[in-house]
């Protein structure tokens, strides 16, 4: 029996075939199924709502699009689809694709990304940490509400964990939060949030 590797896709092919299908993103040419479930979407919505309250309260010129892709400028075969993305409105006029499609190419347009962990947790804890740091995104949240990540990422015993990655000199410094902990976001200093507040019902 011979092994046939999956066909690798490029940016244009991915957009044509899967651009509007929120189940998929592309990493190094490989199609990734994000496996969204009802609880996953509930957690994403809870987070977006909490962040939006902070944007309004602090009168920040930011927005949270419903759907948005990130295509790093120099990547021909990677298209990321964060669960929540916060954009700086003042930078949108520098985005080459934004007027036609909800695609961000410049990291300085992005204030914050949130990934809600699914069974493909390795991407969220490893590959995306690298990608988002290279884009100079100031803050990256990894919300592992089911405690799926490896022990090296969420500790032992495995349990629901929210990790805030803050960019410091090009590298993310990570802080873990468990149920009951008050979450500290350097980007949203007035945020009053615990992991309990965003867990699914």
UniProtKB/TrEMBL annotation:
Keyword Nuclease: yes
One Gene Ontology term of the molecular function aspect: endonuclease activity
Hydrolase is among the record's keywords: yes
InterPro entries: Nuclease_put_TT1808, Restrct_endonuc-II-like, Uma2
Name assigned to this protein: Uma2 family endonuclease
Keywords, alphabetical: Endonuclease, Hydrolase, Nuclease
Pfam families reported in the protein's UniProt record: Uma2
Residues covered by the Putative restriction endonuclease domain: 11-195
């Amino acid at each position: 029996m011979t092994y046939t590797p999956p066909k690798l896709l490029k940016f244009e092919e991915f957009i044509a075939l899967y651009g509007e299908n929120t189940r998929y993103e592309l990493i190094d040419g490989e199609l990734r199924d994000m496996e969204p479930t009802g609880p996953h979407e509930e957690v994403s919505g809870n987070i977006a709502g909490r962040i939006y309250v902070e944007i309004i309260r602090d009168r920040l010129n930011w927005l949270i699009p419903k759907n948005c892709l990130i295509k790093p400028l120099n990547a021909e075969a990677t298209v990321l689809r964060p669960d929540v993305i916060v954009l700086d409105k003042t930078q949108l006029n520098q985005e080459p694709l934004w007027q036609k499609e909800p695609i961000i190419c410049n990291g300085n347009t992005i204030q914050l990304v949130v990934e809600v962990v699914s069974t493909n947790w390795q991407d969220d804890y490893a590959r995306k940490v690298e990608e988002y740091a290279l884009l100079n995104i100031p803050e990256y949240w990894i919300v592992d509400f089911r405690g799926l990540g490896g022990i090296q990422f969420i500790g032992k015993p495995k349990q629901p964990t929210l990790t805030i990655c803050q960019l410091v000199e090009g590298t993310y410094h990570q802080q873990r939060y468990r149920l009951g902990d008050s979450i500290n976001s350097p980007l949203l200093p007035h945020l009053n949030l615990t992991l309990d507040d965003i867990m699914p019902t």
